[in-house]
Design a protein that fits this description.
The complex is a heterodimer of chains A (365) and B (100). By secondary structure, chain A is α+β, with helices and mostly antiparallel strands. Chain A is 30% helix and 27% strand. In chain A, strand 4 and strand 5 form a beta hairpin. The chains are: A alpha+beta (365), B mainly alpha (100). Chain A: InterPro entries: RNA3'-term_phos_cycl_insert, RNA3'_phos_cyclase_dom, RNA3'_phos_cyclase_dom_sf, RNA3'_term_phos_cyc, RNA3'_term_phos_cyc_type_2, RNA3'_term_phos_cycl-like_CS, RNA3'P_cycl/enolpyr_Trfase_a/b, RPTC_insert.
């Protein structure tokens, strides 16, 4: 690879996932030190080590060195291999933590990836498998990665004991398409998935009813689906959640989610998810806050043309991601107000010149 | 309207040529928005995420934003709910944002 050998250096455990992804895609080595070095329990956590192992499995020739204390790592990326991979996710993080970076890598593998992950399918920290299936994958499709792209939820697994299982299938591409997505359109439909495992199945319906009581005022096209999993398929712990998405006339998707908490009735969980969805819709733009980095990354990898996308203001993670992208790919974005004449609008247009990223692994095939 | 002018920040400069941490950049914005709200009471006082105090170190690598029930309390208000009607296909009248 053209850039192999060059080394990029970071400190701290923050943003580790994105940095590992950028390293593997760019072929640049990455060194991260001072990982929780001040913490009373210093070094990498079990989920971070597990993620490194997973990255080793989906690539070939990757060298990972971890210091004795676990406070520093060095990653020399190999090629993205793909093929059948199976991984047990620790119960400290949900499957989403592991799947989000994999989605960024898998299209550039040598062979189509068939990944089986086991663990917690929905939690408060990362995207649930429902949102990844219904929202993240359509975002990936915007870039021409679609035939054979699929996520199957075989078993659900709530925290703390998990027991869920998913299968992620991803095709390989040579290059990703340039994005030009600046028309947010108007919300035309709302979809949702309510699930309740190992608790009273009526909880799903109670969540749906509570959510509808707020959403019905806006549009008639609302379909909230109660997803039923029984026996083995419902995992090892009780739990329930509501995932919502709003789709616009131009296929812009905004999403939200709320997960059961002890002592909180399902109605309140549903209300939380519903209000979070409205909050997301209010942000405007064509891509919601949780998917900013995924879309921006694919824009960087796009063919050598100017890609544009309208979004709300960058999140904390996005700001750091933009800086990291510049370190790895040398690409910086032009970020300008979407409505320069309207001072109350916070929407922005992000544009960049695609790096013309070529799937090197595939070419070796 | 002129009082809101400082809301349009130079994101490129903040991101690429300042040494502020991401949370400093966003805190700065919240502070600016707050001033604004005081200057102009008609302004939507929607979601002031009261999380500015979260230090970078405590932040774990996660994708979802933590929105507390308090952050979303504003959505209990009918006026607030009506304010985004324009973003739906059924909303006819002019809304602040998202006009086609």
């Amino acid at each position: 690879m053209a850039h192999s050998g060059s080394l990029i250096h970071f400190s701290g455990h923050q943003y580790l996932r994105n940095r590992l992804v950028l390293s593997i895609l760019s072929g640049k080595h990455v060194r991260v030190d001072k990982i929780r070095s001040e913490d009373k329990n210093p070094g990498l956590r079990d989920f971070e080590i597990s993620l490194l192992r997973l990255l080793e499995k989906v690539t070939n020739g990757t060298i990972i060195e971890i210091s004795v204390t676990g406070t520093a790592i060095l990653l020399k990326p190999g090629i993205i291999l793909g093929g059948p991979v199976s991984h047990e996710c620790p119960l400290s993080r949900s499957i989403g933590y592991f799947l989000e970076p994999i989605i960024m890598l898998a299209p550039f593998a040598k062979k189509p990836l068939q990944l089986t992950l086991r663990g917690i399918t929905t939690d408060d920290h990362d995207l649930s498998v429902d949102l990844i299936r219904t929202v993240s994958l359509p975002h990936v499709q915007l870039f021409g990665i679609s035939d054979g792209l699929e996520l199957r939820i075989k078993k659900r697994g709530s925290p703390p004991s998990g027991g869920g299982e998913i299968q992620f299938l991803c095709p390989v591409v040579k290059q990703v398409k340039t994005l030009n997505f600046i028309e947010p359109g108007k919300i035309k439909r709302i979809r949702g998935i309510a699930h309740a495992v190992r608790v009273n199945p009526q909880f799903s319906n109670r969540m749906i009813e509570a959510s509808r009581s707020v959403l019905n005022r806006y549009i008639p096209d609302i379909y909230l689906y109660s997803d039923v999993y029984k026996g083995e398929e419902s995992g090892k712990s009780p739990g329930y959640a509501l995932s919502l998405l709003a789709e616009s006339t131009t296929s812009a998707i905004h999403c939200s989610e709320a997960v059961s908490q002890p002592g909180v009735p399902p109605e309140d969980i549903a209300l939380h998810a519903t209000r979070a969805l409205l909050d997301e819709i209010k942000q405007g733009g064509c891509v919601d806050r949780k998917h900013q980095t995924l879309v921006l990354l694919m824009m960087v990898l796009g063919s050598e043309d100017v890609g544009r996308c309208r979004m709300g203001p960058p999140t904390l993670r996005t700001i750091q991601f933009l800086r990291d992208v510049k370190d790895f790919f040398g690409t910086s974005f032009k970020i300008v107000p979407a409505e320069p004449s309207d001072a109350s609008s916070t929407e922005l247009v992000y544009s960049c010149y695609g790096s013309g990223y070529d799937n090197v692994s595939r070419r070796l095939a | 309207l002129h009082s809101r002018k400082n809301r349009q920040k130079d994101w490129m400069k903040l991101i690429y040529s300042s040494s502020l941490t991401p949370s400093q950049i966003l805190q700065d914005e919240k502070a600016a928005n707050h001033e604004d709200d005081e200057a102009d009471d008609d302004d939507d006082d929607f979601f002031k995420l009261q999380k500015g105090s979260i230090l970078d170190d405590e932040h774990i690598d996660m994708t979802k934003d933590i929105l507390t029930t308090d952050d979303l309390k504003a959505w209990g208000d009918e006026e607030m709910l009506d304010s985004i009607r324009g973003l739906f296909i059924t909303g006819s009248h002019d809304a602040a944002e998202g006009e086609a």
